[in-house]
Amino acid sequence: MPRIELLEQIYTIVEQIPVGRVTTYGRIAAMTEGATPRMVGSALRNLPAGHQLPWHRVIAASRKLADHGGAERQHQKLRDEGVVFDRKGRVAFDLVWPD
DNA sequence: CTTCTGACCAGTG
DNA sequence: TCACTGGCCAGAA
C-alpha cells in the first residue's frame, strides 16, 4: 500500500470520529491496510496548517492523551465538546469509537 | 548502508 | 495499576 494512500485512509477515518467521541492510534491503524500506530501518530503530527481534521479526538490505547506538544490544547478541545476525564486523566470506555 | 527517533502498543512481573 | 521491554516502521542524519 503506497504511503500517500495510507495517509488518506488515516485522514478519512479521523474525519469520521463523531463529536464528543474519541478513538485510538491503534484502532485507526487496524482499520487501514498496513499502517502502524506510530504511523498514525506521525500522520497527525505532520498535519498541514489550515486542515480541519478533528485530530484532538485521537488518544492512546490507555485512554489517556498521548504525550506531545499540543496535549494541553487537545485536552481543552475535548473538554469543550463534552468529553469527561476521570481523576487520572482517562476517558470513559463508552466514549471510544467505534463501539 | 547504519543509527536514532518517535502524538504507539501488548505482554510481563 | 504502574514500570519496563521488545517490536513496530517510515523519515531524518
Automatic annotation (TrEMBL):
GO terms for biological process: DNA repair; methylation. It holds the Pfam family DNA_binding_1. InterPro entries: ATL_DNA_repair, MethylDNA_cys_MeTrfase_DNA-bd, MethylDNA_cys_MeTrfase_DNAb, WH-like_DNA-bd_sf. Signal peptide: none annotated. One of its GO terms (molecular function) is methyltransferase activity. Keywords: DNA damage, Methyltransferase, Transferase. This is Cysteine methyltransferase. It comes from Vreelandella azerica.
